[in-house]
């Protein structure tokens, strides 16, 4: 269920298990929970309540997929595990949410690969600009069982106590602003909002602009007040957040194709029975597929809706020099991350 609390504290009846556990107990004791088979008892209050915090609106695809996960987990565990979803940055900003899963303040969240990179740096490489051949390549790399993701997941667990449950297709990032910018030189001196992590500030700088780190919760205000002149996001995010009200142009730079990463506190995972882990894994696989297919199916229509809302879409037909943007960004990525992530980039390239 989606929660809209008046405060950010756990409900009064809930109790934290340890520093790293984002799980909250209801009436049943942990020993009873551990001994309970998934779906093995008649309907009753949930044995385990997990808090899921994220930054997106509840009606966005990214908010909906969190709700889908909550529903799938409840169904597959016979109600033994309940997931409470707190959208719209109620439980923290982007980096705070990543850290909250690590410390156990919350059990679940979704974040960008760069945001997860704040916990385990190599993870940020997954959101490198112009890295993937296409969406199919991206999703093969981001599959929980791919050799790249397995290695990164092991490192994330060891370093931060955080486990990847799944990653779904978030979309492909494009630049928005209040004028048409056709090549990197056009963006000289223009302030563009960047996700406040190095891989994204590099992307914006590579496009030719001045990157200004701004948390997502503050972006609409930053655009409306002129703190920044533009931002970059997939079409679904621009549409859902009505950024067409404060941005007149979208440049189809397509500079980052990315997966959104759903993560869980490792001690919570370890506290579950084998049957409960299997139930969560099955729920994760179903939601990953559903969310990815939904984003892909809506991309073309979302772009048309932006046009209907008055946004000017600027692509190659309108003079956009995507090759120049790509060359500029890739050159800066090579300087900033080539040595650090070069071996990982080769492993990603090898996935077919």
From TrEMBL:
<dbReference type="InterPro" id="IPR006311">
    <property type="entry name" value="TAT_signal"/>
</dbReference>
<keyword id="KW-0813">Transport</keyword>
<dbReference type="Pfam" id="PF03480">
    <property type="entry name" value="DctP"/>
</dbReference>
<dbReference type="InterPro" id="IPR004682">
    <property type="entry name" value="TRAP_DctP"/>
</dbReference>
<dbReference type="InterPro" id="IPR038404">
    <property type="entry name" value="TRAP_DctP_sf"/>
</dbReference>
<dbReference type="GO" id="GO:0055085">
    <property type="term" value="P:transmembrane transport"/>
</dbReference>
<dbReference type="InterPro" id="IPR018389">
    <property type="entry name" value="DctP_fam"/>
</dbReference>
<dbReference type="GO" id="GO:0030288">
    <property type="term" value="C:outer membrane-bounded periplasmic space"/>
</dbReference>
<protein>
    <submittedName>
        <fullName>Tripartite ATP-independent transporter solute receptor, DctP family</fullName>
    </submittedName>
</protein>
<keyword id="KW-0732">Signal</keyword>
<comment type="similarity">
    <text>Belongs to the bacterial solute-binding protein 7 family.</text>
</comment>
<keyword id="KW-0675">Receptor</keyword>
């Amino acid at each position: 269920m989606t929660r809209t609390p008046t405060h950010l504290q756990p409900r009064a009846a809930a109790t934290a298990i340890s520093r790293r556990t984002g799980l909250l107990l209801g009436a049943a004791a942990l020993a009873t929970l551990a001994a309970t088979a998934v779906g093995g008892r008649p309907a009753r209050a949930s044995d385990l309540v997990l808090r899921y915090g994220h930054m997106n609106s509840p009606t966005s695809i990214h908010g909906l997929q969190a709700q889908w996960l909550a529903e799938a987990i409840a169904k597959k565990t016979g109600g033994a595990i309940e997931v409470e979803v707190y959208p719209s940055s109620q439980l923290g900003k982007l980096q705070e949410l990543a850290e909250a899963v690590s410390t156990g303040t919350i059990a679940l969240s979704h974040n960008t690969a760069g945001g997860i990179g704040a916990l385990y740096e190599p993870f940020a490489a997954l959101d490198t600009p112009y890295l993937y051949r296409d969406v199919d390549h991206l999703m093969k790399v981001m599959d929980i069982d791919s050799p790249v993701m397995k290695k990164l997941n092991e490192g994330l667990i060891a370093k931060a106590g955080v486990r990847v449950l799944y990653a779904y297709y978030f979309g492909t990032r494009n630049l928005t602003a209040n004028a048409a910018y056709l090549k990197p030189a056009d963006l000289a001196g223009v302030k563009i909002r960047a996700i406040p992590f190095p891989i994204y500030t590099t992307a914006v700088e590579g496009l030719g602009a001045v990157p200004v780190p701004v948390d997502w919760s503050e972006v609409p205000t930053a655009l409306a007040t002129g703190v920044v002149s533009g931002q970059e996001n997939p079409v679904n995010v621009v549409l859902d957040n009505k950024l067409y009200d404060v941005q007149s142009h979208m440049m189809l730079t397509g500079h980052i194709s990315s997966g959104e990463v759903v993560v869980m506190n490792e001690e919570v995972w370890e506290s579950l029975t084998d049957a409960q882990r299997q139930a969560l894994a099955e729920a994760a696989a179903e939601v990953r597929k559903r969310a990815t297919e939904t984003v892909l199916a809506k991309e073309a229509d979302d772009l048309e809706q932006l046009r209907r809302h008055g946004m000017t879409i600027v692509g190659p037909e309108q003079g956009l020099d995507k090759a120049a943007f790509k060359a500029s960004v890739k050159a800066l990525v090579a300087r900033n991350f080539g040595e650090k992530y070069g071996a990982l980039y080769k492993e990603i390239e090898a996935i077919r």
